[in-house]
## 1
Amino acid sequence: MRDRRLALACAAVLALLGAAACRDQSSLSGCPGTESSAAPVDESLLAFLSAARSLHHEADVKVQGDDRAGAVAALRRLVEMPAPHAVEADEVLADARARLAELELEAGDLERADRDVQAGLQRVAGTTYFRGHLLEVQGLVAEARAASLADAGRADEAAKARTQAVTLLEEAVQVQEKVIEHALSDGGRE
């Protein structure tokens, strides 16, 4: 999971650095964003993505130091930060919500994990990797809820929660299959 975040962050930074380099050149031909219909580089988005990357790194350091509460605090700071209106910001926030939910799930806080998944799902619609990942985490929350209910002797409710977990995990797979099909059908151009 950390490798995926790092790859996403690197791709965003490289794209943004390329755009910044084009902005600084005297001849802008061939640079993205120089066409009359393209938007200029959004400095608030650059700043937000940089802060997000830093807070994810901080969370990584905290997890490595066995400070899960500190990792949660770093990610909570990210999701509470004002964000520009941009798809990239929504995706970063959805991903942060999924990571928060996973940490909360590890701590046994199913209600908070579920709230973070719901907040993440509100940020991303349609068929995207980020939505699929949130559905996966939501399925893991339902699975943990099923185990908790079974431990409490509530077999009927546990069975319903297990069914919900399987449904959510299957939905996550279906979303990711569509993402893959879309990427492969156009050669990754979109």
## 2
Amino acid sequence: MLTSLRQHQHNGHRSPHKPLLMLLALGHLAITGSSRVAWSVAEQALAGLIAEFGEPSKTGRAQSAAYPFTRMRADGVWVLDADVPMDLVRPLVEGNVTGSLPSPLEAALLANPAVVMKVARMLVTSNFPDTIAPDVLEAVGLDPHAVLSLNPPVISG
């Protein structure tokens, strides 16, 4: 669920916007014990991550961050504390909106921090080249060595 986010594709490339937001939330969770990210933080941090690690875009920084911040709700792994239309920046700003993982999911991750690292590893290795994966992890507040030195998680089907 956390590692199979629906992603926009353009010219055969998947957009890393949602994985970057999920990694940012996991970084917040690991550091603060909460995945809650205020739009005022996400607008700057996520926009910076997208600019550095995403595909070049003609869209403004705030708009680029608003896409995953509002759209990841459809994946069932992100909730906002206010009802905001998809992609709109103004309601995010005016409402001081925050986003987070759903409470039951956050509680489950907090109960087993090793899972946070495994999910982060799966997200970063499946969405970014090995050459920049450590930089992505560091940028979201996760220890690259701790995340990337884990044994690959076994997925049973």
## 3
Amino acid sequence: MKNFKTSQLFALIPVFSFMATQAQNVSTDSLIQKKSRLTEEVTTLKTSLAKSEAELNAVNALLAPPSPKWTYKGISGISITQLSFSNWNTGGQNSVASNIYVNAELVYAYQKLMWNTSLNTIYGKMYSPAYNWYKADDNINLTTRLGYSLLKENKLYGTFLANFQSQYSKGKKSPLDQNYISNWLAPGYLNLAAGLDYKPYKWFSVFYSPLNGRLTFVKDSYLAHQNSLGIGVDKKFNFRLGSFVNNVINLTVTKNISVISKLDLFTAYDSSFGNIVMNWDGLLAMKVSKYITSTVNIGLKYDDKIKTTDKTGNAAGPKIQLKELIGIGLAYTF
């Protein structure tokens, strides 16, 4: 009987094996189905989460305060230089020099509209016992541009530009001269132009106008009578139509170094076409400490209408006018 039961047990082994295999197959199929179901659920959750995140970002954008439309940057400062001698056997004059300068840019941007205004101005005086106070530097260059973007990237604008250039007070070739050669609005220049303004970067722009009206003012009767600007004796106003280019660079190279450059070029649609009237103001500012800054200011001008004279007083024709100022003093960057 014992042997019979053992034989039966061995006979049932294939049956048990088959049943175990079937059970395993059923378990594997169930796991595969469960995995597929879970994968679908995860995919659905990811899609729903992405949609919810997009909706949340849209709501946050509506609730967030609007980005500032006005931005500004620039540098202003004052520098003072003092020179004193006592029993100095090689000679020299005691003197004090000071100048105040502002180089600033204000920008308004909203959607496709851009309004940019920049001011480059400097005024300086020098004192010595021999000459008393006299003007050492004087310049005003103000430009405003109102543009509407023509491209999706907001890099090209249809723009109207107004540019004003003059000086604050009387200027002489030498402190000893009795006569002066410049004054407020003598000369004064106003450019009114419509054209295209290309701004590939925030710190760089170039404007071109094929239709620019250049107005020249000589408010001072004495200077108008001298015809020093070549617009006619006793004439105080002149208008010329021509082509105009304006280039502005306002670049922060590093935290302590800034470069500001402003270049204006004009040629008239008359017999002088091709003769370029140029005005360039450049400033390199290098911070020595929080409030102490070293500056290099360069001015370059050329106008074929402005005649010059040599040392003997004879006519010498138009020449390039160059100004260079190197100083160190208090400055504020904003």
## 4
Amino acid sequence: MAVSFTFPSARPIGLVDFAWSPMFEAALSLRVVAEPKRAPLHLPWVRRCRDLPADLQDEIRALFRPFHGTFVPGIFEAALQGDHATFADELGTLAALPDDTVALELSFAYGGIECTTFFDDDEFVLDDPDYRARVLRGAPDEHMRGLAELAFDDPGALRDRYVRLLERYWEAAFDDEWERILPRIEADATAGARALVTSGLGGLVRELLPEGRWDPERNAVIVDKDWERTCDVGERGGLLFVPTVYGWPCVLIDVAEPWPASVIFPLRDLRTPEVPHASDHEVVAGHRALGDETRLQITRLVAEDPRSTKELAELLSLSDSAISRHLKILEAAGIVTSARDGYFVLYRLVPERLDVLSRALRSTLGLAGAASGDLPALPVSVPRAR
């Protein structure tokens, strides 16, 4: 089974856009704080949030623990329809959502996806006693059933709790975090836009969405899921690609109105958080050469004065052949160099090579500042079901 986004042509640049939302990202991060075991890559952020006031932590767990897995209520996506509004603007959008919209989205989350279907008309489902009964039966515990009942009986009060929680969390912690991760999110959006212009939707999918594939015969972006749905992007007025940090490890998909059709995917460097650095081989070869007591002694001796194989053999009480083997390893790593001086071949230290190895080691460990101005690496999204 799969979710398919079909396009009227193979290069529908006008139907693809990129978006991000501080409020939506904050909501995704709150899932991590509420259920840290589900997102081990984000444990550094979880640890930072342990300093939040105890009552705020309790409210986070109470209101965001239900939103695990691949479902996030669309009420937090409302701001994706705008043009990168501020967090305060987005919070105002959330606070102004109709009660029925809030009740429907939250009941999906509290009762579990199993209690819902794709409704032809969501307008009247809230008045269906069978639907309410399914939601309450689907709630996994008493706390969740209490939230579900409140969603049906007083959705406005529940919405206001989420607004207050997000506002406190933003001021206490996430404002600075958003400033830190926004350049990475913008970088992936820029990379996607470039791929779209140069290589079409196939290039965009290859660049940003390895979990998906481009079907040129159908002009469709396809993402395998455990549910089936086809979304006509032309009829919906476009498709949003939304890079996320805290949505990891899932690719979240929304095809339900009134929210924009969207694919919310983890940043590229979160899919492969550890990749070989260009300097790794150099670091390993150089330090392997120095990682032997005898070779370290040889290096210290030739740092004092150029020396021959025989002199080193005498100083270290080893055979000429043993010294030669060690010198070959050091010379291959560029740590020593040799030159004939009359009858003897003298070995000298290459101090510049040690400087290079030191810089390479600091770089591969992330301890050296990037002279190129590259963005700092992050420390540390399977489509969303309905």
